[in-house]
Amino acid sequence: MAAFHSVAALLLATLGLSAIEAGIVFPSQAKLTDNASYDYIIVGGGTSGCVVARRLVDTNHSVLVLESGGDPSAISMLPGLFYLLPGTNLDYDYKSTFDDYAASAQGNYTRLTAGNALGGSSVLNHHLSIRPIPQDYDDIASLTGDDGWSYDNMLPYFKKTETVKDEEIASTYSEYHGDSGPLGITRELHDDDVAYYLKALAEVGNPTVEDLNGPVSVGYMQPLLNIDNGIRQTPAYVYLNDIKDNPNLHISKNTKVSKINFANSTAVSVEAIYKGTTYTFRANKEIIVSAGVFNTPQILQLSGVGSKEVLDSLNVDQVADLPVGDNLRIPPTVIVVQKTKKNLNVLSAVSSLLPAVVPTKIPFPLLLGTTPTNKSSEIPNYQTYNLMLPHDTPFLTLACVSIYGYTLDVCLRWQTQIATRDAVYSVVVNLDAVSTGTVRANSTDINDAPIITTGFYSESEDLERAVDILLDLLAVQDSPTMKNLGAAVVGVDFPECADKEAGSREFWKCYVLHRTIAGFLYSGTCPLQTCVDSELKLLGLKKIRVADASVFPKVLHGALNAAVLALGEKAADLILQDAAN
Ligand SMILES: Cc1cc2nc3c(=O)[nH]c(=O)nc-3n(C[C@H](O)[C@H](O)[C@H](O)COP(=O)(O)OP(=O)(O)OC[C@H]3O[C@@H](n4cnc5c(N)ncnc54)[C@H](O)[C@@H]3O)c2cc1C
């Protein structure tokens, strides 16, 4: 790891970004005074927190951001090295309780990577810019009775976050994309490497499309990425860099919020621990909680916001009876690997390692698919991220162990069975999953990791649907293109499912249960309608909102980074509207 850090520092210096290592790209540490007051206090300077901070500072309000992590590291800013980040100090590296389901491939728990840095999970995520589908927002608008959440009304917020640099997308789909927002959005095109798989997918009814953030929600494309000029587009950088010296912006890093204090039902102050000292900070206008899906409920529960049962177990007095920490939505995710083209070329195997030396790009071609199992539907029910791996690349094992957290045994089974073959490593996300899990503070010590139960497959329909999804995806094996290549699914011969008939539904159920991981699209622990109102205010309380992925009531049909950025923009607008009244 140290060697990678040196390479990263060297590369950043070459790119003129050695300032990241020197700590002058991000806002510096605020001077803290106990009992100081600010207009707004933001609890958690993550993906959404940085966006809200930026917009409030832009409008001349004093803002204190309290962030548990430090600055993003140089390595994290280099897009191609994302596989090195899980398990480092940028990652809370939470583990679920053992829930009898799906945990065996990760060592009897489900691994839950989550960002612990200024920028939050955007600092270690996988760069994909894929929005939820319009229907998701229209559903939220119906649920809340607030048309402000409709897709038509949310689209301007998505546009506000980005500048699409890909000329084809920008010119053809300009009505869907921003041209002056903070995040630079690009594509890395590898047409030759992905052509055969796109052809095979099309042969079994999966169209190739240009822009899944545009007019269609179904198909396969080479994805848009949160990468610009070889640099990760975390909001910690692109939203905060040019206001880092603004006197209204106060950011305290390595600072853990332990409690929010209420006077009757009004949020008035925040307690936070910095270098062993507990400070109290007062909010003149509002407190915005954006500590992420796991820590927002933990902080709220420790502050007396939660069900009586949960608070009694912690011996915390109740301030508001809200279902905080229920409704955890983690779309169960399964990986399947197919071996494809035979390839004995040693030189190309060696050249596949080059991306590791020049880590400003994703180290392998990618294909993104959002797909319905019912081919006549325009609403996808699963999503796939397909790593198009060249033959004999070590990236399969690297990604498999480091990112997806499978045991080495599972990964080596895949790796050895693709020897001399190119491969498609598909991360398959069930977007219609309905099972819910929970997040509970473990104790009144904020440093104690919350207890997280995934709830995977607690609703049996999720398991049935997972099998339908795999069968739909693997229908690609019957395409003429894949047949000609002698393609095959690998890694299906493991002992736990050896008693099931190969290819049967029972076999695939067994496969799903032994290969499910969390993916990374967590949401729902303080949802719209039952926990916050449509203005993101905690129900029954005053001067406090939640603005992070916790508020999405169900699994959205996309990934979450773009959704959370747009949410941050909307939250800022809502806050400023109230401030103006
Ligand atoms: C490994 C990974 C890969 C992903 N890949 C993609 C992708 O490719 N595309 C995509 O669209 N989405 C992706 N996502 C999802 C997306 O990045 C997240 O959903 C989104 O960033 C969440 O934003 P948030 O603001 O809700 O929370 P976060 O960004 O996680 O922010 C929460 C912040 O609160 C801070 N915090 C927590 N507790 C405290 C406390 N007590 N005191 C102070 N601060 C605290 C945290 O340190 C963190 O900075 C990925 C996520 C992960 C984890």
Could you explain the architecture of this structure?
InterPro entries: FAD/NAD-bd_sf, GMC_OxRdtase, GMC_OxRdtase_N, GMC_OxRtase_C. GO terms for molecular function: flavin adenine dinucleotide binding; oxidoreductase activity, acting on CH-OH group of donors. Its cofactor is FAD. This is SFRICE_038620. Belongs to the GMC oxidoreductase family. With about 575 residues, the chain is an alpha+beta fold. It has one domain (about 1-185, about 230-330, about 400-405, about 435-460, about 485-580): FAD/NAD(P)-binding domain (3-Layer(bba) Sandwich). Helices cover about 30% and strands about 20% of the residues. It is built from 19 helices and 23 strands. Strands 1, 2, 11, 12, 13, 14 and 23 form a 7-stranded mixed β-sheet that branches. Strands 7, 15, 16, 17, 18, 21 and 22 form a 7-stranded antiparallel β-sheet that branches. Helix 3 (about 45-60) runs parallel beside helix 19 (about 560-580), helix 6 (about 150-160) crosses helix 19 and helix 14 runs antiparallel to helix 15. It starts with a helix and ends with a helix.
Q: Uncertain spans, ≥5 residues at pLDDT below 50?
A: 1-6
Identify every distinct bound molecule in the structure, by name, code or SMILES: flavin-adenine dinucleotide
Give the integer mean of the pLDDT values: 93
> Which sheet architecture does the biggest sheet show?
7 strands, mixed
Number of strands: 23
CATH class equals Alpha Beta
Spatial shape: globular
The third-level CATH topology is FAD/NAD(P)-binding domain
| Domains, number | 1
Given the structure, what is the number of helices? 19
Helix content: 25-40%
Q: What gap, in angstroms, lies between the N and C termini? A: 52 Å
Alpha-carbon Rg, integer: 23 Å
CATH architecture annotation name: 3-Layer(bba) Sandwich
Strand percentage lies at: 15-25%
